[in-house]
Write a structure and sequence with these properties.
Elements: E1 2-7, H1 15-25, E2 31-36, H2 45-52, E3 56-59, E4 73-74, H3 76-81, E5 86-90, E6 93-97, H4 100-111, E7 120-123, H5 127-136, E8 145-148, E9 162-165, H6 166-171, E10 178-181, E11 205-208, H7 217-224, E12 229-230, H8 233-248, H9 254-267
Parallel strand pairs: 1-2, 1-3, 4-6, 7-8, 7-10, 8-9, 10-11, 11-12
Antiparallel strand pairs: 3-5, 5-6
Bound molecules: 2'-monophosphoadenosine-5'-diphosphate.
2'-monophosphoadenosine-5'-diphosphate binds near residues 128, 129, 149 and 184.
């Protein structure tokens, strides 16, 4: 079987090395490559994929929404999020899925006991936030809280959540067991921190969906305060694992996938 990840730029994607390591470990004669398709060529997607004879593909920045009109079906999670990261090609039909949210939450379940009872705050209200929120509301008992800079962003949210401002999130921060940052705020070109952590509960887990850098500014700050932190590496691994399951109906070797990515990051000195 043949797979790929499509994006632009894509040369730094760790998906090929991660998936190919899994295929090798399972003794599967499958391939996974990176395909760079710039925005101006995206209208050729059907031709490109068909010519390659792919059985499925991942789709990443900047095409996760652009792919929607080309799909024959999309799953519930993709509908909620409005974006797709996994396409299965079955009997010539293109079926879209979004495994980012389940990827993040699957990882979080491994590191946080009793997630069902946790008071959770998500920072940001974009696609990533919505995907994670949509998974968490399925089983977390306390109502989820989502904070965003722009409140109108919640207008098209139809999930049962508390929508609050970033200022309120700062004031009530000590009420939360887990804080999940999905915004790019505080990153290199954008030094302004997304949230003042002054009122952070001493036991709260602070998380970010990013894993390059391995510790984002909010994670650094939380760690310096002595709080546990959790980055986006598992999210990346588990979203890939979920894609593999969708394509092949087989269980991946998660440990191999994660170790391969970690080794690569260490080689690149990103962690
Ligand atoms: P993604 O699909 O990765 O979630 P997105 O849809 O562009 O990306 O959403 C980015 C999120 O980060 C948004 O919630 C955005 O807030 P706004 O809705 O107010 O734009 C948030 N964000 C980006 N830069 C930010 C900053 N400097 N401070 C606070 N929030 C920021």
């Amino acid at each position: 079987m043949k797979f790929a990840v499509i994006g632009h730029p894509i040369s730094h994607s760790l998906s090929p090395v991660m998936h190919n390591a899994n295929f090798s470990k399972l003794g599967l004669d499958y391939t996974y490559e990176a395909l760079d398709i710039p925005i101006e060529d995206f209208h050729l997607i059907k031709e490109i994929i068909t010519e390659k004879g792919l059985n499925g593909f991942n789709i990443t920045i900047p095409h996760k929404e652009r792919i929607l009109p080309y799909l024959d079906e999309i799953d519930e999670q993709s509908k909620t999020v409005g974006a797709v990261n996994t396409v299965l090609i079955k009997d010539g039909k293109w079926i879209g899925y979004n495994t980012d949210g389940i990827g993040y939450v699957t990882g979080l379940r491994q590191v946080y006991d009793d997630l069902e009872s946790a008071y959770i705050l998500i920072l940001g209200a974009g696609g990533a936030s919505k995907g994670i929120a949509n998974e968490l509301v399925k089983f977390v008992n306390p109502k989820l809280t989502v904070a965003n800079r722009t409140m109108s962003r919640f207008n098209d949210w139809n999930l049962d959540i508390n929508a609050i401002s970033l200022e309120d999130a700062e004031s009530y921060l000590d009420a939360f067991d887990i804080i999940i940052n999905t915004t790019p705020a505080g990153m290199v070109e954008n030094k302004e921190s997304v949230l003042n952590l002054k009122n952070l509960n001493t036991n709260a887990l602070v998380s970010d969906i990013v894993y390059i850098p391995y510790k984002t500014p909010i994670l650094e700050e939380a760690e310096n305060k002595g709080n546990p932190i959790y980055n986006g590496l598992d999210m990346f691994v588990y979203q890939g694992a979920e894609s593999f399951k969708i394509w092949t109906n087989q269980m991946p070797d998660i440990q191999t996938m994660k170790q391969t990515v970690l080794d690569k990051l260490k080689g690149d000195r990103s962690c």
